[in-house]
Amino acid sequence: MLNRLPYEIILLILMRLNNRKDLFSILGSCRSLYGFIQDDAFWRDLVRRRYGIKYNIQQQSWWQLYISGDANQMCCHLQNYDMRSLQIKRALLWNSIQNLNGVCCKNVQFDQYGLCMEPQCEFIGCGDVFFEKDESYSGHLRVHHQQTQHNIVLKLSPLNYMELWCYSCNSPIGHWGFPHIEKPIAEKCMCRNILQFMAALPPDNDPLLRLDVIERRRLIEQRLSVFQQNHNFTYLIEKRWFTKWINFLIGRSNEMPGALDNSFLFFPHDKHKLRHDLIIGYDYELVGASIRAYIERVYGLENESYIVSGGQPLYRGISQSALLHRNYH
Ligand SMILES: [Zn+2]
Ligand SMILES: [Zn+2]
Ligand SMILES: [Zn+2]
User: Fold this and answer.
1) Ligand 3 center to residue 42 CA distance, Å?
2) Ligand 3 centre from 318 Cα, in Å?
């Protein structure tokens, strides 16, 4: 009987089933419905209908996403932005780094504003540092959200630099600094793809703009690093990458490190297990949770490596004091 109904109606009925057992027993009840189980487009439509989620990652099928239960935890306002609209957003970002005159209002400072991520929208507005509901100064970004229902913004505040924020979910998207709250893998990957595109440097043929963007990145990352001084430094970062990063932060080099490859810190046959013979200052350095999240979302990780906690909270001052004494302003 059910199988004679139009596809859309079948979806509407099936999306209401909260119990997976019920869903599978209906799908198994006749041959034409059983065919849906093998059809990933069906699971895509079901996820879209039920959770409003329109994005997924290559590593998992829509069926896997549905079964994992992750779809329920993901921001349904995030979109799979096309390359063209991301390029426009990035041009706006670069432009804002060079000149904020005439944008939004006089409250816009370089360290507290955000970019609306809605395709076709070019709004850049002021906002509170943390953008949360009880923010002291909500700014024109929130007004823009209220007037237009555009939900996703790219935050450009110093401590949350390059963080995607959803006004509707009232939550950051993807990676952020609280390790006890893990976002679903698909949301993290989408967020990372967007942010790494946005964080890419301008081409060599525009050296002035390139230098401006490098300087801004440096200033932001210096602030992030100094801000973390009073926090527990527990996350292990491979030393060569770390040295390259510090050289960038203190202005010794304009070359930023690429994606972090932390795999050297783990046993070759067990990528989840830290080697026992690691020496701090030689094999690795320690960073706090915000820097870890920043590295994950902006620099990215190579070779499927991880950033893990060494378990032992330590305070390391070398790189941070070097920063304070050398180039911080
Ligand atoms: Zn959302
Ligand atoms: Zn404003
Ligand atoms: Zn907008």
Assistant:
1) 32
2) 43
Distance (angstroms) between ligand 2 centre and the Cα of 199 equals: 23
Q: What is the mean pLDDT of residues 282-290?
A: 90
Q: Which ligand is nearest to the CA of 165?
A: 1
Domains and CATH numbers, the chain: 2-73 (no CATH), 83-197 (3.30.40.10), 206-328 (3.30.2230.10)
Q: How far apart are CA 258 and CA 244, in angstroms?
A: 9
- Please tell me the distance between residue 11's alpha carbon and the centre of ligand 2 in angstroms: 44
Question: Quick one: pLDDT band at residue 109, thresholds 50, 70, 90?
Answer: low
Residue range 155-195, pLDDT digits in tens? 887 666 788 989 898 888 886 656 566 789 899 889 988 99
Cα(111) to ligand 2 centroid in Å equals 13
- Is 60 exceeded by the pLDDT of residue 325? no
For residue range 65-79, what is the model confidence (pLDDT) as tens digits?
998 989 999 999 998
Ligand 3 centroid – CA 186 distance (Å):
24
pLDDT above 90: percentage of residues in the chain:
40
